């Protein structure tokens, strides 16, 4: 019985795409594996070593990037922006590769390995925002041929975005062309096809927006994420055999509530509403929210984000001079009980509840300082409720100063590299600490003030919002 041996046809020459990049080509016919993975038309020259016919879109990937110096990561060029928009809109323009091909071309031109990019993401952002199944993601990038999946490519693009550091010199804005176009493409895709990967993309764009002080942009992205997650929930109710994992969707719910809350707490000058409505049902993250390992701290703080939502709506109404649904006393009492519960829980599980406690205390301080009579720290008033509230504010202020000191110590332990430390807890603490200095400059001693400035400088290595706080502190 004879066994058929598969015949693999190969070209005698390398293809135009691999030749232009001086990369190894497997010469497979009708398309090499590199061009097939990027969904590009593969063209072979007729004479080895001679001038090869250059396929449109493969001649030079350098057209896609704009280098802004050694102090910044590469940005998307104007040509790359145009081509990516055309591809996202589905416009069939000669010479423009697919959106998947363009994104991978950009990464190639930036000399970014997909494996290195994934390793960096899962060692940093994923540690405190576990919304992506790591095992599944690595299987996708290790596959020999990536599918023509634009939404997976967008997810890779958003991972590249959120892992970039701010400009070391401070000369360039974090509102890069890459950030702007990725935000637009995300909204466009959300109106056509809501998927779990697209939701994860939006959440990572929101992390970038929050982390670099773009509260209004973060609100717009989070509002779109809220619409996507509702569509996914609706599809899930109609088809229990959806193409996404329940655990990942629940984790995205928790991340959405967390980012929505931190965006409202940490903005300083702008009045940013919440993307999720006040009647949003509880979305506490289940124990199996992450398949890669225990993320108890994330589960805890995402649940805290749910509990402080009434306080955030009160804060927003107070800023807009609207009649709040809950009174100041009701909100403060609820936050006081929450802080007490977290302090008690921290006695046995400090590692898990430390960040949640910092988030709750910072929120309580922001709410307390928003009340005019309390903010005046009026201890000579004959109004006993006012004196009581002022004393409570002074007590919370001391807790904020202690937490700011601890936050700076934590960053020192990281040797000035805060990439692995959660953005959420540090952002909330530094926001409250800056507010404390503005409220009562004498409350923080010179040593603590110097430590706060040092902490903000280290925090600013990773997140641009630290620069916003530093400028507000110096005003």
Automatic annotation (TrEMBL):
Protein location: Nucleus
UniProt entry tagged with the keyword Transcription: yes
Tree of life domain: Eukaryota
SMART domains hit by this protein: GAL4
Pfam families documented for this protein: Zn_clus (PF00172)
A GO cellular component annotation in the UniProt record: nucleus
Protein name: Zn(2)-C6 fungal-type domain-containing protein
PANTHER family noted in UniProt: ZN(II)2CYS6 TRANSCRIPTION FACTOR (EUROFUNG), ZN(II)2CYS6 TRANSCRIPTION FACTOR (EUROFUNG)-RELATED
GO MF annotations, alphabetized: DNA-binding transcription factor activity, RNA polymerase II-specific; zinc ion binding
Gene3D superfamilies reported for this sequence: Zn(2)-C6 fungal-type DNA-binding domain
CDD domains cross-referenced by the UniProt entry: fungal_TF_MHR (cd12148), GAL4 (cd00067)
Span of domain Zn(2)-C6 fungal-type: 14-44
Alphabetic keyword roster: Metal-binding, Nucleus, Transcription, Transcription regulation
């Amino acid at each position: 019985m004879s066994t058929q041996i598969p015949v693999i046809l190969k070209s005698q020459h390398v293809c135009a795409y691999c030749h232009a990049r001086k990369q190894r080509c497997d010469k497979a016919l009708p398309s090499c594996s590199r061009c097939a993975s990027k969904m590009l038309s593969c063209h072979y020259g007729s004479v080895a070593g001679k001038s090869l016919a250059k396929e449109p879109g493969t001649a030079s990937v350098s057209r896609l990037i704009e280098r802004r110096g050694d102090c910044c990561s590469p940005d998307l060029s104007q040509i790359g922006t145009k081509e990516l928009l055309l591809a996202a809109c589905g416009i069939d323009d000669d010479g423009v590769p697919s959106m998947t091909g363009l994104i991978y071309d950009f990464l190639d031109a930036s000399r970014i390995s997909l494996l290195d990019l994934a390793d960096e993401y899962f060692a940093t952002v994923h540690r405190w925002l576990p919304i992506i199944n790591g095992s599944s993601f690595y299987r996708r990038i290790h596959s020999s041929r990536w599918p023509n999946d634009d939404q997976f490519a967008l997810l890779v693009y958003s991972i590249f975005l959120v892992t970039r550091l701010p400009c070391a010199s401070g000369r360039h804005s974090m509102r890069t062309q890459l950030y702007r176009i990725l935000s637009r493409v995300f909204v466009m895709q959300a109106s056509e096809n809501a998927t779990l990967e697209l939701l994860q993309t939006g959440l990572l764009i929101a992390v970038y927006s929050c982390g670099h002080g773009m509260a209004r942009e973060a609100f717009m992205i989070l509002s779109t994420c809220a619409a996507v997650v509702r569509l996914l929930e609706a599809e899930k109710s109609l088809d229990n055999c959806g193409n996404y994992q329940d655990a990942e969707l629940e984790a995205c719910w928790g991340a959405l509530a967390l980012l929505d809350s931190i965006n409202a707490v940490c903005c300083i000058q702008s009045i940013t509403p919440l993307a999720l409505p006040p009647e949003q049902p509880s979305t506490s993250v289940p124990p199996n929210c992450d398949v890669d390992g225990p993320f108890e701290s994330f589960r805890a703080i995402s649940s805290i984000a749910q509990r402080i939502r009434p306080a955030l709506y009160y804060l927003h109404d107070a800023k807009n001079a609207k009649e709040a649904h809950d009174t100041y006393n009701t909100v403060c009492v609820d936050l006081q009980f929450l802080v007490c519960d977290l302090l008690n829980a921290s006695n046995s599980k400090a590692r898990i509840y430390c960040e949640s406690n910092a988030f709750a205390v910072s929120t309580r301080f922001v709410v307390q300082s928003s009340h005019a009579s309390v903010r005046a720290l009026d201890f000579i008033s004959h109004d006993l409720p006012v004196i009581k509230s002022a004393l409570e504010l002074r007590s919370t202020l001391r807790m904020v100063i202690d937490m700011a000191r601890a936050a700076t110590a934590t960053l020192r332990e990281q040797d000035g590299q805060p990439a692995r430390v959660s953005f959420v807890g540090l952002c909330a603490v530094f926001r409250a600490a800056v507010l404390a200095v503005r409220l009562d400059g004498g409350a923080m001693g010179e040593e603590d003030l110097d430590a706060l400035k040092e902490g903000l400088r280290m925090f600013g290595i990773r997140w641009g919002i630290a620069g916003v706080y530093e400028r507000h502190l110096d005003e």
